[in-house]
Amino acid sequence: MKIALGQFAATPRWEENLATAIDLARRASAEGARLLLLPEDILAADMQDPDLTLRAAQQLDGPYVTGLIAGLQGLDLTVSGCIFVPDGSGRVYNVHIVVSAQGLIGTYRKLHLYDAFAMRESDRQTPGAEIAPLIEIDGFKIGLMTCYDVRFPELARALALNGAELIAVPSAWVRGPGKEWHWEVMLTARALENTCYVAGIGECGPRNIGCSMVVDPLGVAVVRTGQDPDLLFCEISKERIAKTRATLPVLQNRRFADPTLR
């Protein structure tokens, strides 16, 4: 299956970001992609205004999601990315959405909030409480994670044991000493230890690193990009997964119990 990674820098205006997402979708579909992965914060973002997260949040049936679904009409393409959704108490959920021309296919509320490196997402966000069901596209089973989740191997392992062959990780990975290396190491580790594909899609711009990449089941970065807006493509292969798992049967050889969410 051919997938696309659409890396861009979100602006404070959701209308502009929606237009960018639809443009990337049309370009990805024209190249034969069946899945387009977009970053975290595709609704609205402003590094100087963290409260924009609260003001810009929309319901899943709001204008951003319905506009994206409308923009996909006529395209044989599924799109994923993250938006902020009001939780009903003045805070928001960070929701990884999956949509197509037929509507909303699936959602995942980010489990691990980024209370690290002097940032506190929990000041404005409410964590999710469930591991999302897998999404199936062209016979491939896809697991959903978001950004900081990639530092927690239990979630990726749970998705792999549920059958995930590709794990999608939209992100707004903040710059800092060694942070690009952290990103690459974590994506590679999650792919290699679970012998599946992992696609990390980074928001770029003045605060975040971009650096989107797809890592294959043997830990090889098969495509990657730098810090600028980009649209890159990758073929993922069930044969590659099967051969890797036959040679490196870590999921069979493990001695620990299945991870559970507490």
TrEMBL record:
<dbReference type="InterPro" id="IPR001110">
    <property type="entry name" value="UPF0012_CS"/>
</dbReference>
<dbReference type="InterPro" id="IPR047999">
    <property type="entry name" value="De_GSH_amidase"/>
</dbReference>
<comment type="similarity">
    <text>Belongs to the carbon-nitrogen hydrolase superfamily. NIT1/NIT2 family.</text>
</comment>
<dbReference type="GO" id="GO:0016787">
    <property type="term" value="F:hydrolase activity"/>
</dbReference>
<protein>
    <submittedName>
        <fullName>Hydrolase</fullName>
    </submittedName>
</protein>
<feature type="domain" description="CN hydrolase">
    <location>
        <begin position="1"/>
        <end position="238"/>
    </location>
</feature>
<keyword id="KW-0378">Hydrolase</keyword>
<dbReference type="Pfam" id="PF00795">
    <property type="entry name" value="CN_hydrolase"/>
</dbReference>
<dbReference type="InterPro" id="IPR036526">
    <property type="entry name" value="C-N_Hydrolase_sf"/>
</dbReference>
<dbReference type="InterPro" id="IPR003010">
    <property type="entry name" value="C-N_Hydrolase"/>
</dbReference>
